[in-house]
Amino acid sequence: AGLGQAAMYAGLQELGVANGEDLKETLTNCTEPLKAIEQFQTENGVLLPSLQSALPFLDLHGTPRLEFHQSVFDELREKLLERVSAIALEGKVEERYKKLEDLLEKSFSLVKMPSIQPVVMCVMKHLPKVPEKKLKLVMADKDLYKACAVEVKRQIWQDNQALFGDEVSPLLKQYILEKENILFSNDISVLHNFFSPSPKTRRQGEVVQKLTQMIGKNVKLYDMVLQFLRTLFLRTRNVHYCTLRAELLMSLHDLEISEICTVDPCHKFTWCLDACIREKFVDNKRARELQGFLDGVKKGQEQVLGDLSMILCDPFAINTLALSTIRHLQDLVGQDTLPRESPDLLLLLRMLSLGQGAWDMIDSQVFKEPKMEVELITKFLPMLMSFVVDDHTFNVDQKLPSEEKGPIPYPSTIPEAFTKFLQENRIACEIGLYYILHITKQRNKNAFLRLLPALVETFSDLAFSDIFLHLLTGNLTLLGDEFALEEFCTSLFDGFFLTACSRKENVHRHVLRLLLHLHHKVAPTKLESLQKALEPTKQSGEAVKELYNQLTEKLELRKPSPAEVTETPSMELPLPTVPTPASR
């Protein structure tokens, strides 16, 4: 209790104001306590002559003096807080801040006194530059630091990167976790996936909002956050940090914080790209604009390419660029035009290439655009276009009256070069994967099964990355009825998913997510073998075990009860096997 009391009166003595300790001392050393109390009250009470006669009136009503003083005190404190806020807005800049600094000088010694603390904090909040000495005292005291306004904390943070890092770090962890939770969510849908929320909706997320508030208009803090994001991206290769880089800039853009937006050289590029992401397409007008920014990088300013590449490495940007590329390729088929003759397509590839090269560029600190492989444009993209043509031809063939030779089968082989491109060229692999997502979304089972074998080995295992598997599982729900066919399941599960399950925990999780959603459509014998194949091992993480248990429970519920089994009509009983002569 002694400590609590001491805190209540902290700093009064320095101002020459009597406190509880003084009263205790007076009472200990006096002969007439009541007189001493009366004298203490007179000396330290509210010094208003008219009040002296009114106080006994309150006593008659049984109102304790404490209650009276407390209400006067609260009233005065409110008035003072209002006055401080008013001073911060009136008169000449130098004068108003001089007043506030004087007030801070007088009141700071009471900062630990809970009843006065809000006033001191309010004064500091309105000072654009709190004296260094005071900031150091606040920083050294955990409780004071916690109690001070974000405006004051910014002044502390801008010269204490480590402290700011401690504040930001849990937010960044939370952000990554939120992204991963969406990718592994149990709701599998082709309509609501990872890329469904609009950029504006995403920027309303808790982490982005908190970081925006912590930064305020402070360029130094903004730069620190970008530095953290770059460092973490380099350390982990996690592309969600690139998303946050873009979201943070656009969140400040929404608030029209020109102090930061005008000094970030990526601002206009990001703003234009943001509009494309919103439409999930890069139209010609915006393409020209984006190209202008890239072509406008001047000699000596190449470092901005590092930032632009990080903005383009954001999965939402890659998704938009890749979808636009697939759309362009289809248009080119209709126009009888080759990829090399389409400047719009070449620009999309240039941006994809810059985005995919972000990690290498920031790591090597060599700021120049990656070289585009000619074969990507002259061989790989025409090959994808030939797949589109194959589909058209097959569809037309199906409609023609069949002649003697019977229907033409769907092409089942894939050019070896296609598989090789997917293994060796990052951009080709990314576009190839998006083409496979595209045909799956079109429910084109033939094309899907034809190209699926090429996914077993891809550039840096991109076909087993969370974003691709999240989208693929969503699109596969459109082919739900095919899961009843043993052949389809064997190609998909044995031929693709199960090749990586044991070495990649995330693939194991995605397969279980898919089965939780579609188990009722899968051929029963296949389901049984899958259940065995997907059983978690000792090394499996909690998430896999949890999903597997959920699946097992669902399958248990589907099993018919023994009573139902015995009632099968006799004609459906298996026939006794008669040995054939050959097997004797």
UniProtKB/TrEMBL annotation:
One of the protein's GO biological processes: negative regulation of transcription elongation by RNA polymerase II
GO cellular component: NELF complex
Pfam families referenced in this protein's UniProt entry, alphabetically: COBRA1
InterPro entries: COBRA1
Region of interest (Disordered), ranges: 558-584
PANTHER family (alphabetical): NEGATIVE ELONGATION FACTOR B (PTHR13503:SF3), NEGATIVE ELONGATION FACTOR COMPLEX MEMBER B (PTHR13503)
UniProt-recorded name of the protein: NELFB factor
